[in-house]
Specification:
Bound molecules: S-adenosyl-L-homocysteine
Largest sheet: 10 strands, mixed
Structural class: alpha/beta
Low-confidence stretches: 17-21, 27-41, 44-60
Shape: globular
Number of strands: 18
Mean pLDDT: 87
Length: 462
C-alpha cells in the first residue's frame, strides 16, 4: 500500500521557490577553529568571588544579558556551562531564541528544511509510511519539538494534503513545542496565515489555530503539556540547542567546566574548572569513559525518556535529525552569528549556541522502552527515502536555468558528505512490535515479515 502512494508524493510537481542557501551550522563546523578549551589550561575556579568593576557591555548587542550574567556570577560564583547556555538561549527576557531565534537565511544559521522543500516532503512521506506500517490508526498527533520558522511542518502538511485520499479517515492534529514567543509568531504566520488565538486557560496549549490545509494546530512550552495519544514526534536541530554540561579529565580526576568572570579583563567571561568534583561529574561520567573531554545533555536525556514512555504507552514513533556522534566526540560547543562562528562566551544572547548531539546517550536514555534505529547519515537516509527521484521530477518541471541550478545546489548542500550529508544524522524511536513480532518467539513462522522502516532501509516504490 505504501508504495504507489509514496511514489505519488515523490512525483507531485509543485515546487516552492527555493531560498538561496547560506551555510548551515553543520557545514561551518567543518572549518578549523581554535577551541576555547584547547588553548591555555583552565584555571581552577577560585574559592573567593572575583569582581570586575563597572557594568558590562556586550559587543554588538545591548549587553543586557551580559550585565545580567555578570551580576549573577559576582553574587553566586561560576555557573555550569548548562546554566550559561540555558540563560543565553532561553532566558524569558533576553535569551537568543526568545528575542531573536535567527533560523534562516536572514538569521544566524540555516537548516535543511530552510534549504530545500524536498527535505520536509521526504519526512512527510516517512510519517505516512510508518502510519501505514503501524496499521493506519484512526487518529494521530504530529508533534514537532523546536519548529523554528515552521517550514518543516509546512512541507509535511503539504504532503499530507497531497495524500488526503489516504489520510481522509484519519483525524490528524499538529502540536508544536516552542519556547520562543518570537518564533511561535513566525510559525503562526507560516502555518495559519496568522489566524491564531491564545488558548483558553483550561487548556495546556498557549495558542491554537487551523493550518491553511484545515488541520488544528496547538502550541506548548513543554512536551509534558502535549496531550497523551498516538503521536509521531519530530525533532530537527532541536536537541543540539539544549544545554550541555562539559567535563574535563585532569590529574586529580574529572572536573566540570564552569563559566566565570575573567579577573584580568573587565566584563569578559572565561571558562574555569571546578576545584573539586561536582554533582554532575559524579552522575554523568561513566566509569568506563575513555575520552578526556565529555559533553552531556541531561535535558535531552529527560526528553527522550518522555518520548520513549509516551510511545510505549500510546503508540507512535519519533524521528530525530541533528548533527552529532555516537559517543565519540569531545569538545563540540559552538556559537553562530550571521552564519559565522562566534566565540561562545562573547555577547551572550546575541548568538546561537549549540553542541553536537550524542546519539549513544539518547539510545541509553530510551531505557529499552522503545526500539531505536540509527544514527544513519543524512545522505543515506534521504537517498533511501527517494530524494534522487524527487530531484529528477522537480528538475523536469522547472523551466528556467536559475531554478534548476538552485535545485542542484540545494541537493548538494543536503547530500554532499563534506556539507550536510555526513555530519547530520537520523535516529528513530519505534515501538518494539514495529521491528519484532510480539509473538515471534512462540510462533516464528506464523507471521508475514514486518515492512522495513523507510529511510533506515530503502523506501519501497512500485
Ligand atoms: N527545527 C527547526 C529549528 C531549529 S532551531 C529547523 O530545523 O529549522 C531550534 C528550535 O528549538 C527553535 O525553534 C527554538 O526556539 C527551539 N527551542 C530551543 N530550546 C527549546 C526548549 N527548551 N524548548 C522548546 N523549544 C526550544
Amino acid at each position: 500500500m505504501v508504495l504507489p502512494l509514496a511514489r505519488r508524493a515523490l512525483l507531485a510537481g509543485r515546487r516552492r521557490l527555493l531560498r538561496p542557501g547560506a551555510a548551515p551550522r553543520g557545514e561551518r563546523r567543518l572549518s578549523p577553529l581554535s577551541s576555547p578549551l584547547s588553548s591555555p589550561p583552565l584555571p581552577a575556579a577560585p574559592a573567593a568571588r572575583l569582581c570586575s568593576g563597572g557594568e558590562a557591555e556586550a559587543a554588538g548587542g545591548d549587553g543586557a544579558m551580559l550585565r545580567h550574567l555578570a551580576r549573577k556570577l559576582r553574587a553566586c560564583g561560576p555557573v555550569t556551562v548548562a546554566e550559561y547556555m540555558r540563560e543565553a538561549l532561553t532566558n524569558p527576557g533576553q535569551g537568543y531564541y526568545t528575542r531573536r531565534g535567527g533560523v534562516g537565511e536572514s538569521g544566524d544559521f540555516i537548516t535543511s528544511p530552510e534549504i530545500s522543500q524536498v527535505f520536509g516532503e521526504l519526512i512527510g512521506i516517512w510519517y505516512i509510511s510508518e502510519w501505514m506500517a503501524m496499521g493506519k490508526p484512526t487518529t494521530f498527533q504530529l508533534v514537532e519539538l523546536g519548529p523554528g520558522r515552521g517550514t518543516l511542518t509546512e512541507d509535511i502538511l503539504r504532503v499530507f494534503k497531497q495524500l488526503h485520499s489516504v489520510l481522509s479517515k484519519c483525524d490528524v492534529s499538529v502540536h508544536l513545542v516552542e519556547v520562543s514567543p518570537k518564533l511561535s509568531e513566525i510559525q503562526a504566520v507560516m502555518l495559519t496565515g496568522g489566524k491564531v488565538q491564545p488558548s483558553p486557560e483550561d487548556e495546556s496549549a498557549y495558542m491554537k489555530g487551523i493550518s491553511k490545509t484545515g488541520i488544528p494546530i496547538f502550541w506548548y512550552r513543554d512536551i509534558q503539556d502535549v496531550p497523551p495519544g498516538y503521536s509521531f514526534y519530530l525533532a530537527h536541530e532541536f536537541f543540539d540547542a539544549l544545554p550541555i554540561h562539559k567535563f574535563q579529565r585532569t590529574e586529580k580526576g574529572w572536573r566540570e567546566v564552569l563559566v566565570d568572570i575573567d579577573p584580568e579583563v573587565p566584563d569578559q567571561l572565561r571558562f574555569v574548572l571546578s576545584p573539586s568534583r561536582t554533582p554532575a561529574t559524579q552522575n554523568f561520567i561513566q566509569p568506563e569513559e575513555t575520552r578526556d573531554h565529555v559533553e552531556v545533555c541531561p535535558e535531552a536525556g529527560v526528553i527522550v525518556q518522555r518520548l520513549a514512555s509516551r510511545i510505549e504507552k500510546d503508540g507512535g514513533a519519533a524521528l530525530v535529525a541533528d548533527y552529532g556522534h555516537d559517543g565519540t566526540k569531545t569538545d563540540t560547543f559552538r556559537g553562530f552569528r550571521n552564519h559565522k562562528l562566534h566565540d561562545v562566551l562573547s555577547a551572550p544572547g546575541t548568538a546561537d549556541l549549540t553542541a553536537d548531539v550524542d546519539f549513544s546517550y539518547l539510545r541509553k536514555m530510551a531505557q529499552g522502552k522503545t526500539a531505536t534505529l540509527g544514527p544513519i547519515k543524512q545522505r543515506e537516509f534521504l537517498k533511501n527515502m527517494g530524494i534522487d527521484l524527487r530531484l529528477q521530477v522537480l528538475l523536469q518541471n522547472s523551466g528556467d536555468t536559475a531554478t534548476r541550478e538552485q535545485l542542484l545546489h540545494s541537493y548538494d548542500m543536503l547530500m554532499n558528505p563534506k556539507k550536510m550529508g555526513d555530519c547530520f544524522n537520523f535516529f528513530a524511536l519505534l515501538p518494539h512490535h514495529r521491528l519484532v513480532h510480539p509473538d515471534k518467539k512462540d510462533k516464528p513462522e506464523s507471521k508475514s515479515p514486518l515492512p522495513p522502516v523507510a529511510g533506515f532501509n530503502e523506501l519501497l516504490l512500485k
